[in-house]
Write a structure and sequence with these properties.
heterodimer; A: alpha+beta; Multidrug efflux transporter AcrB transmembrane fold; Alpha-Beta Plaits; 2 domains; two-stranded antiparallel ribbon; elongated; B: Multidrug efflux transporter AcrB transmembrane fold; Gyrase A, domain 2; 4-stranded antiparallel β-sheet; 16 strands
Chain lengths: ~325, ~600
């Protein structure tokens, strides 16, 4: 079976089209990020409130989640179903449920009390008679990620980019390194922008998904570059653009199949993985699509642009 | 040519498979043939792949930083009278129910009693209000420091991806994934890890203080009156229980101090376990405390009882240390590295100090012939005589129960001491953070996704697709085996790494297959197409994967918690998928093409 036989698509001719799409996505994302003062950080980063209640008879976590899907606080409705809800078991206290509530706008008071009474009312069979006994504690909690880790993250990003630059410069050429980094930054920024537009929160797990996108984007870009490198040696007479176009076309079949298979895994995870995992799968889905697109429409055009501007001063 | 290379290739592949199955066997056994008794299940759990807090849950501890002790530690002693007044209001303020308001209650009590706090807390301010905010800031700093130290300890303990969060103003939630030995984890978390190196007082000064204490004891009235307020020594829970029961059951009669002591072969003061509570009582009496303070002395128990025959009662040594403020001061802060080791068959911790510590240590050890005690968390672990000056800043801690304790002590010494003691509020089981519902749904969808990928490869590449499928399953198996061997924890971010691994594994095969197809289209024979397909794909696969490998390496280096776990999976996954694509599938192709002269290849 073969999906794509000997394609001759003019990818570089379509690069203006690519720039428009990338530009529009980047701009929309940046505007959204600007309007919302940066990415919407989840409770892992901001901290929040932890509510702990005691049940007499244990409850299903999914029914707790359902109960917290609609919580009314002063006439406003909130959805806490995607919060970190855990069943805990203490030798003395018995079955406990802890809920980590995100930071809410300052106008909203007593979200914890609202959650407690909602749970108390939803499970009349399972709770102690008195709400005082039901409510164990409610306390503010700090972020899971300290400032020290953020500093380390910056260091990790900077040194990763440096390593990539050095490796690709040695194995390929400097302009390819710039192309790969451009595609990578492009992919992460667009995914971040889409998250902002969708009003999704950034949690620790989403950070891991972003890192996966980085890995994917790099892999995809380099496979195309590898073809370019090979064809540059083979087809010395051809124009630079022609060689790059040919290389993208030759690796197209592979690119599509790889992306398709990886996409299938995360697509099903997105479809049926449950609401907590959905955001994680969404980030990966977007990342795979953008990562595939960028190796054709961002990384290679950047290399061509650098080549046209600075010529072949350094050996091809 | 190629067929000759096949045997070692097959052998290596089989060996790897064998190792992987061996590493995964406990997990498989636990999943599919769980043993009936709990002890065996626990043993299997230790050996099998650990799932993270998000997927499986673990143990949750709520710890409380003891603010009163922190305030006590911060206070500078001025005059005995002022000191005891301060101690009185601290213990008064402790009685309030919430630690959160301790500092304000304490300062209020000081104000009512007209105590000049600035004499005790120099540098924090001049008015009591300023000192209150200074103390609050110090408490806040201390808690943040505790957070960081606990993070380091837990990381080194080998529990990856813990949750460590501040709750309220002075409490800390620590959640550890799949911890089976909760007692050990608890001890590790709560240990203050204050390491001190202090001279022992010489024999005559020790004799001197004993007779002074004896003199007070013969004046029995004061002693009895003091008894109610005395608290038992809390060295270890076991001793505490022993102490308490003894206090309750035995009628307390104050003996002469000397009569409670028995000399040991080494010439130290031995105290049988049954005498220990009484010795503690005496040492806690106000007038005894005062004469000890005046003598710049300090009594500290040995960490372990003397080794003796079975029948004899356990005997602890009571050391009299020289707490003269003019002596060179050396604490665990100078420790640069600490490693658990075995010495003469006993577990020890070897210490290396930084240059500053090494300098002080050489000053201390220049008093050849004197004895120096190595005190950890107010217990003397050893008190050797100084034989010669030590200039390289190296020493060791002995008197440990077992290798596990040695390892844990090495961990806490490397991570540094806590600025204030912490206390457990509760410790219990906690369910998965994602919720069991999400974990179930997620597992099913990933399996479904995997099956679809396997089917797709089979349909698209036919027979070669089967090889790719075998490679993919083998890949996942190996990554999981590596996780089990590294004792790493699998979490949702780890699964993200696993999905990327699946992608890369499929990708490597796709790159090879597409190349082979290309070569075959050019009219090459099957064998030649496979050969050149592999050769050409090799550089592609290496370049594409090495870059990602580098990123994984950096994340491994810098990341903590979930990011580190992700990096481990990513690194193992990519390294293995490279190996699989280049070596393992090649072996299969070789076997096929060597058996018969293939005219066509199902690809």
């Amino acid at each position: 079976m073969r999906f794509l036989s000997e394609t001759k698509i003019d990818f570089l001719g379509a690069r203006r089209f690519g720039f428009v799409i990338s530009g529009a996505l980047l701009l929309a994302g940046m505007i959204s990020l600007f309007l919302q003062n940066g990415p919407k950080l989840g409770i892992d980063f901001t901290g929040g409130t932890r509510v702990m209640v005691k049940f007499d008879k244990s409850v299903e976590i999914s029914s707790v989640r359902d109960a917290l899907a609609i919580v009314e606080i002063e006439g406003e409705t909130f959805d806490f179903s995607k919060a970190e809800i855990k069943l805990e078991r203490d030798k003395e206290l018995g079955d406990l449920v802890s809920v980590r509530l995100p930071k809410l706008p300052e106008t909203v008071d007593d979200a914890d009390e609202a959650v407690i009474s909602k749970l108390f009312d939803t499970f009349p069979e399972n709770v102690p008679d008195d709400i005082i006994e039901f409510k164990l504690s409610t306390d503010t909690i700090g972020p899971k990620i300290g400032s020290e880790l953020r500093g380390k993250a910056v260091l990790a990003i900077v040194s990763s980019i440096l390593m990539i630059l050095i490796y690709i410069s040695i194995r390929f050429q400097f302009k390819f390194a710039i192309g790969a980094i451009a595609a990578l930054v492009h992919d992460v920024l667009i995914t971040l922008g889409i998250f902002s537009i969708m009003d999704y929160e950034i949690s620790l797990v989403i950070v891991a998904a972003f890192l996966t996108i980085v890995g994917y984007s790099l892999n995809d870009t380099i496979v195309v570059f590898d073809r370019v490198r090979e064809n540059l040696k083979r087809l010395k007479q051809e124009r630079y653009e022609t060689i790059i176009n040919k290389s993208i076309n030759e690796s197209l079949s592979r690119t599509v199949i790889t992306s398709l298979t990886t996409f299938m895994v995360v697509f099903i995870l997105w479809l049926a993985g449950g609401e907590v995992i959905r955001y994680f799968a969404f980030a990966m889905m977007v990342g795979i699509l953008i990562g595939t697109y960028s190796s054709m429409f961002v990384a290679s055009p950047v290399v061509v642009a650098l080549h046209n501007r600075y010529g072949e001063s350094k050996s091809r | 040519m190629i067929s000759q290379n096949n045997k070692p290739r097959i052998f290596i592949s089989l060996m790897i498979l064998l190792i992987a199955v061996w590493a995964l066997w406990p997990s498989i056994e636990l999943q599919f043939f769980p043993p009936d008794n709990n002890a065996e299940i626990e043993a299997l759990k230790k050996e099998s792949i650990k799932l993270g807090l998000d997927l499986q849950g673990g143990a949750s501890f709520l710890l409380e930083v003891e603010i009163p002790t922190l305030v006590e530690n911060l206070a500078v002693s001025v005059k005995p009278k002022a000191d005891s007044l301060l101690a009185a209001i601290i213990s008064d303020a402790k009685k309030g129910d919430s630690q959160e308001t301790f500092i304000s209650r304490f300062v209020q009590a000081a104000t009512t009693n007209e105590i000049q706090l600035r004499r005790h807390f120099e540098g924090l301010g001049s008015t009591n209000a300023e000192i209150e905010s200074g103390l609050n800031a110090a408490a806040n700093d201390a808690i943040n420091q505790v957070l960081e130290i606990l993070q380091n300890r837990v990381d080194e303990f080998g529990v990856s991806e813990p949750t460590i969060q501040k709750q309220g103003s002075h409490r800390i939630i620590v959640e550890l994934a799949g911890v089976t030995d909760t007692d050990r984890a608890e001890a590790l978390l709560e240990r203050t890890a204050l390491l001190e190196f202090i001279y022992l007082k010489d024999g005559s000064s020790t004799q001197n203080i004993i007779s002074k204490i004896d003199a007070i004891q013969s004046d029995g009235d004061t002693a009895l009156a003091e008894l109610d307020t005395v608290e038992a020594d809390t060295d270890s829970s076991l001793l505490k229980i022993a102490d308490e029961t003894l206090l309750e059951t035995e009628a307390i009669s104050i003996n002469n101090f000397t009569s409670l002591l028995i000399p040991t072969p080494s010439g130290d003061m031995g105290v049988p376990l049954s005498n220990r509570p009484r010795v503690n009582n005496i040492l806690e009496q106000e007038d005894v405390k005062q004469i000890i303070q005046k003598d710049y002395g300090r009594f500290v128990w040995s960490s372990d009882p003397l080794k003796s025959s079975e029948e004899q009662e356990e005997t602890y040594i009571l050391y009299y240390l020289d707490a003269d403020p003019n002596n060179p001061e050396l604490t665990g802060q100078v420790v640069e590295d600490a490693v658990a080791d075995i010495y003469n068959g006993q577990p020890i911790v070897r210490l290396g100090m930084n240059s500053e510590g090494a300098k002080t240590w050489s000053v201390i050890t220049s008093r050849v012939g004197d004895r120096v005690a190595i005190v950890l968390d107010n217990k003397v672990h050893m008190a050797p005589s100084i034989r010669s000056k030590i200039t390289d800043g190296r020493t060791q801690v002995e008197g440990l129960d077992d290798m596990e304790e040695a390892k844990d002590i090495a961990i806490v010494l490397r991570a540094g001491k806590l600025p204030a003691p912490i206390r457990k509020v509760y410790g219990h089981e906690v369910g998965p953070a994602l919720g069991q519902d999400s974990v179930d749904k997620g597992t099913t969808s990933i399996l479904v996704g995997l099956v679809i990928v396997l089917l797709f490869m089979l349909i698209y590449y036919k027979f070669a697709g089967l090889i790719a499928d075998i490679a993919l399953i083998w890949n996942i198996l190996l990554v999981l085996a590596v996780l089990a061997m590294l004792d790493a924890t699998l979490t949702l971010p780890g699964i993200a790494g696993l999905i990327l691994t699946v992608g890369m594994s499929v990708d490597a095969n796709v790159i090879i297959f597409e190349r082979i197809r290309e070569e075959m289209r050019k009219g090459k024979t099957v064998r030649a197409a496979i050969d050149s397909g592999y050769t050409r794909a090799l550089t592609t696969i290496i370049d594409a994967n090495v870059t990602t490998l580098l990123v994984a390496l950096i994340l491994w280096q810098f990341g903590t918690g979930p990011i580190k776990g992700f990096a481990v999976v990513l690194f193992a996954g990519i390294a293995i998928s490279m190996f699989t694509a280049i070596f393992f599938t090649r072996t299969i192709f070789n076997i096929i093409t060597s058996r018969k002269q293939l005219k066509t290849l199902s690809i």
